[in-house]
Amino acid sequence: MPRPIVLTEKIKQQAREDFEVMLDSVKMSDGKLSYSKSFKYDNRTAVVWLTMEAYRKTIALLTEFKDEVAWHGTVSRSDKSEFIVENILVYPQAVTGTTVRTDQDDYTQWLYGFDDETFNKIRMQGHSHVNMSVSPSGVDDQHRNQLLDQLEPDMFYIFMIWNKSMSIHTLIYDLENNILYEDDDVEVKFLDVEDMDDFLADAKSKVKKYDHEKSKHNTKSTHQPVADYETSMFDEIYNMYDAYGLRGKRWQIR
């Protein structure tokens, strides 16, 4: 669930009241007192949209680099809880399979090379975890905390971690609305990309997992072994080419 980022007066008062209740019932076996409380919002979600250009550039970085790679994104807020990543910008960096390092002078020079409009839209940091989990590392958490300290009350910032299997970890600091969104609180969508929902639903209704054991014990099964299926498929194709007088000509299935 989404969480607050800063303690409002309402949250502070709630914490004080809960702390008072805890003090009335606590028993200390070692003379120490600790207090922890989590604050959450209900029924709030965010959407991060990627333009076609941003999406294609992200996929290109994921597929073309064997090591980690990091990037920034220019982002606009399109609604109270919707954000559009418009473009992807790769900054100077030195990488290994598990790390990204930046030279502060090179990075600063790169950053200040943009016009004011672009500079003010750089509100996203993304990087790849190559073939590993997209769970943030200790270094990732430290980086986020450092950046959070620099954000003004009316700002937002998005962090994304991708890997080659297209898993995505997303975190949004929305200071303007005092909400921290993370993972299940965020839906990542793509602008200008044809909706595949109907196509995939139809495909999933037709494609079933082949059950070897069921086929082995069921003589009436209509499933064919893979090799037989491929043979049957190509026989049909050859018959089609015979019908059109094309047998023997060069052809390729695409």
Please explain how this structure is put together.
The structure is a single chain. By secondary structure, the protein is α/β, with parallel strands linked by helices. The protein has three domains: 1-26 and 34-39, no CATH class; 46-190, 3-Layer(aba) Sandwich (Cytidine Deaminase, domain 2); 212-243, no CATH class. The chain has eight helices and ten strands. The relative contact order is 0.13. Mean pLDDT is 84; it is low at 221-231 and 244-254.
Give a quick precis of the structure.
With 254 residues, this protein is α/β, with parallel strands linked by helices.
How would you summarize the topology of this molecule?
Blueprint (H helix, E strand, L loop, with lengths): L8 H17 L20 E5 L1 H13 L5 E10 L2 E8 L4 E2 L4 E2 L2 H8 L4 H6 E7 L9 H13 L5 E7 L5 E7 L4 E4 L3 E5 L6 H10 L5 H6 L8 H18 L11
Parallel strand pairs: 1-3, 1-10, 6-7
Antiparallel strand pairs: 2-3, 2-6, 4-5, 7-8, 8-9
